[in-house]
Amino acid sequence: MIDRRTLITALVAAPAMGALGTALSATTAHAADLYDSNTALYADPALVEGVDYGRRLRRHLVDDQDPAAAAAPVRTTVIAPHGGGIEGGTSELCLAIAGYSPAGPTDTAPAGPLHDFWMFEGLRSSGNSALHVTSTHFDDLTGRAMCAGSLNVVSLHGCTAAQAGLEAGAAAVLIGGLNATLRQYLAEEFAAAGIRAATATGDEEIAGVHPQNICNRSLLGAGAQLELTTELRAAMFAPGKNTRLDRAANTLPLFWSFTAAVRTAIQRLEATQPVR
Fold this sequence. Notes:
Blueprint: E1 7-11, H1 38-43, E2 53-58, E3 74-84, H2 90-98, E4 116-122, H3 141-148, E5 150-159, E6 173-176, H4 180-193, E7 197-202, H5 204-207, E8 224-229, H6 230-234, H7 253-271
Parallel strand pairs: 3-4, 3-5, 5-8, 6-7
Antiparallel strand pairs: 1-7, 2-4, 6-8
Helix pairs in contact: 2-7, 4-7
């Protein structure tokens, strides 16, 4: 089983937010998972879907019936494999980055493009960390199929500053994954938004460089993984409202700045990709 062990980060963005530094000490990050796959978790008779955990998704119709006007492929899928109470704030960001209200999809389409999304959420009042399945062991059939049918995948995660090898209280996002172009665009957009960001290297779970990591199981075999520290995620929601039930209705400007930065990076990447 792979767990988070070593992380070294390099500064890539946002001087106004302070430098991360070019080298950070090794840290022990995430304890070994209780479940070695989603399949094992779903098979546990002690867990009840809809009570302990839930899954949400939206997959857009691709209808290619006209040989003279072929439909474009699914460009990007946004995922939160540890949403709800596991890594707080990632469900709401997943929805917003996909183009929806953080409270969930509605019949009214917002401005801008919509993306497919998938998320796994811890629904317990406590103890949700036991539901964490590391990204290289992700095998939910629907989630994996959605990623495999997309050109790009953006995967959202949460970590503590200590797990990231940062100073206490650091509000930052670590950019990982095998899509170097998307990583570059994300870094540039975070810098423009004044959000502290760094390229994640070293430990695979945070760096997201293993081919089996769900962020890289796209049509192109590469994607992006974003690890947001607890402090960065907390600053996105009103004080006292950073709970699973309250977050969606209590977002702060930083939430939307982060969302806009990721959406702009995705749009820049999609503009370079062929229609089909």
